[in-house]
Amino acid sequence: MSIHSRIKQLREANGLSMEALAKRVGVSAWQTVQQWEREEKGTAPKRARLQAVADALGTTPEYLLVGDAGAERADDDAEFVGVHVLNVKASAGAGRLVFEESAVGLMAFRTDFLRSMSIARQDAVMMTVQGMSMEPTLPDGSVVLVDTSQTNPRARGVFVVLVDDELMIKRVRVEKNGDLVLTSDNPDKTTFPDRKFAAAGKKLVQIKGRARWFSACL
C-alpha cells in the first residue's frame, strides 16, 4: 500500500470527506486532497505538510510514509524514531538544481543519540551528498544527517545551503567584514574554488541546516 492509499483509507475510516480533510489540514481546496490520494509520482504531501496531514488523520508521518499496522504516535520515550529521508541531493560540487523536496522514506535513529547531539526529532532530515568537493570529509554518496534548526553560519561547520535554486553542502564562515564564504574541503581549489558573497549579497544564500553526522559505504 502506498502513501496515497493510506491517506485515502484513513480519511474514509475517519468519516471525512476530501473537503473536511482539507479544512483540518489548512489547505483551501479539496482538490489538493484528491491529488494526495492520486497514485502518481510527485503528488504526495510535501514534508512541511506531512505532520498536519498525519495529525488530521490521527496517525504519524512514519505510518503515512512506510506503513506499519502497529504504528503508534511516536514520543520522546520511544527507543527509536524515524528521520525523514528527502528526495534531494546536496551537491558537493558546482551545485544541484532543486525544484521540490519531499520525504521518500525513513531512517531509524536512537532517540538518545539525537538527544545527545541536541537535535530535535522534528528538525532532523537526511539527504545524500553528490560530488567530490567535500572529500575527504564527506565522500560522494554519503548520507548526511542535517539539523534544520541550525542556520547561523557563525556556529561554523558544514552546512546545506541554497544559492540561486542550487542546493549544495559546504563549509560556511563569516569574515570580520561580514562577507560570507562557502568553502570545500577538497584541496583542489582550481576545481573547487571558494565562493564569496559580500555582506550586502548574503541574502542570496539560504542556510537550510547544519550537517551533524554521515554514513558512507566502504
UniProtKB/TrEMBL annotation:
Q: Does the keyword Transcription regulation apply?
A: yes
Q: Which SMART domains match?
A: HTH_XRE
Question: Its Gene Ontology molecular function terms?
Answer: DNA binding; serine-type endopeptidase activity
Start and end residues of each HTH cro/C1-type domain:
7-64
Q: Could you state one GO cellular component term attached to this entry?
A: membrane
- Keyword Protease in annotation: yes
Gene Ontology biological-process annotations: proteolysis
Q: Which residues form a coiled coil?
A: none
* Keywords tagged on the record: DNA-binding, Hydrolase, Protease, Transcription, Transcription regulation
PROSITE patterns with a match to the protein in the record: HTH_CROC1, SPASE_I_1
Protein name, entry field:
Phage repressor protein C, contains Cro/C1-type HTH and peptisase s24 domains
